[in-house]
Design goal:
Strand content: 5-15%
Distance between the termini: 21 Å
Strand order of the largest sheet: 1-2-3
Number of strands: 3
Largest sheet: 3 strands, parallel
Number of domains: 1
Structural class: mainly alpha
Radius of gyration: 12 Å
Oligomer: single chain
Number of helices: 5
CATH superfamily: DsrEFH-like
CATH architecture: 3-Layer(aba) Sandwich
CATH class: Alpha Beta
Shape: globular
CATH topology: Hypothetical Protein Ychn, Chain: A
Length: 77
């Protein structure tokens, strides 16, 4: 089963401030490349820091729409 993780909004702030979240995000790279929303991370001045963690920062709106069209089910918490 393919999984995609997209950090969006408040979760991007957690990446910058919470070491447990950073460690968990690093583990996700074993299963696929996590992505963070560039629009929001640029707005909050976090893009460079998130990229430094090895997480791709990109615009995710169309990515999310395409994944839903392909049958992925978003899990948001």
């Amino acid at each position: 089963m393919m999984r995609r993780v997209i950090f969006f909004g408040p979760s991007e702030n957690l990446l910058s401030g919470d070491s447990d979240i950073r460690e968990s995000a690093a583990e996700l790279a074993n299963y696929g490349q996590p992505v963070a929303c560039k629009f929001l991370s640029d707005r909050d001045g976090l893009s460079e820091h998130i990229e430094g963690l090895g997480i791709t920062v990109d615009y995710v709106g169309s990515m999310i729409a395409d994944l839903i069209k392909d049958g992925f089910i978003p899990m948001v918490w």
